[in-house]
């Protein structure tokens, strides 16, 4: 059968050396003053554009795809083989442990919620998360388990306080069942030492879970080598389309009744309702899988592997150093993570900042409509760390919460985030620095009207 994830099968000739090409890298937009410019894509921590190779793989796959695990025939067989190949590539991409199972969900949030419902946690158990976690690695443990959830402290630059982590393990001997941490912060770019965290967790009898949504597109992952027990990430942050989350977890956790039973979760059911469950590795994959999403992610994993992590990481580290230099030199712009921490720590290219005197959402609007630059503005799913940066006292926090509850999302404090990817270049960083300089020097050139329900400003 044709290898649907093989670049050679899709486009004859040798792959282009260097970094993989993304679809829409030359997208253009018309600014408020009528000029047409190339879009600067600096919201990659939210969503990356798909690789050109991934888009071609999907198009090729759709021409012949059929029933997945639901029939016989050449199209069904081709689909099964393509998916199996993609799954193997995804396993290799994360260094999947041999004794782990792999489940597919809608996204990282869904994967973490599923893991929370699968783990046998009780009210006497403790789950450790941290102050730098995305809410997707905080709320599931609080709302989908009866366990006590405690947060490891972090410094103002978003680095974990390992001494406090040790204190929490010591204060709850034998009760900590899980350490759930980010592999790379979506807000600060901070990357903890996963092997060191695994050693601490295992010494305490706990599992290590890693939210790798931001780590996966930026750093080589080897779960087995690092001792990571469970891990989740999303395809749409790894240059593939929306709609697929990946969850790797110990197979022993799967040997239980599925929390979401359905088609494919059983081998037999009697007239009286007795159930013979499918094998543990299959019973939790209910319904028809997102075969297209799996094939797409497999293609992106293959593209990254072919480019080489050394090439990708070297490109990003160079850009991170340049971005820290440029952004820290713009008067009126404050990096909430000091520039020198991007030089001393292991951090991906994620830069939070505030602009003196301007609402974060207004800054984002001006960057879009006056400069063609995409960023993200808000609390970026980590309200506590952003509150610390802004310095919001309790009384002010209560007032803000009341206004948000009444429908005014613009009442919230926030920051602006610029996030890099493998298709980012130095020209993108220069344009951002020049745009911010113009904004801090002259203010917004256009008139903008607030839209509180959407937490944004639009040209008036």
Automatic annotation (TrEMBL):
<keyword id="KW-0808">Transferase</keyword>
<dbReference type="Pfam" id="PF00266">
    <property type="entry name" value="Aminotran_5"/>
</dbReference>
<comment type="similarity">
    <text>Belongs to the class-V pyridoxal-phosphate-dependent aminotransferase family. Csd subfamily.</text>
</comment>
<dbReference type="InterPro" id="IPR015422">
    <property type="entry name" value="PyrdxlP-dep_Trfase_small"/>
</dbReference>
<dbReference type="GO" id="GO:0008483">
    <property type="term" value="F:transaminase activity"/>
</dbReference>
<dbReference type="InterPro" id="IPR015421">
    <property type="entry name" value="PyrdxlP-dep_Trfase_major"/>
</dbReference>
<feature type="domain" description="Aminotransferase class V">
    <location>
        <begin position="42"/>
        <end position="432"/>
    </location>
</feature>
<dbReference type="InterPro" id="IPR020578">
    <property type="entry name" value="Aminotrans_V_PyrdxlP_BS"/>
</dbReference>
<feature type="region of interest" description="Disordered">
    <location>
        <begin position="1"/>
        <end position="24"/>
    </location>
</feature>
<dbReference type="InterPro" id="IPR000192">
    <property type="entry name" value="Aminotrans_V_dom"/>
</dbReference>
<protein>
    <submittedName>
        <fullName>Aminotransferase class V-fold PLP-dependent enzyme</fullName>
    </submittedName>
</protein>
<dbReference type="InterPro" id="IPR015424">
    <property type="entry name" value="PyrdxlP-dep_Trfase"/>
</dbReference>
<keyword id="KW-0663">Pyridoxal phosphate</keyword>
<keyword id="KW-0032">Aminotransferase</keyword>
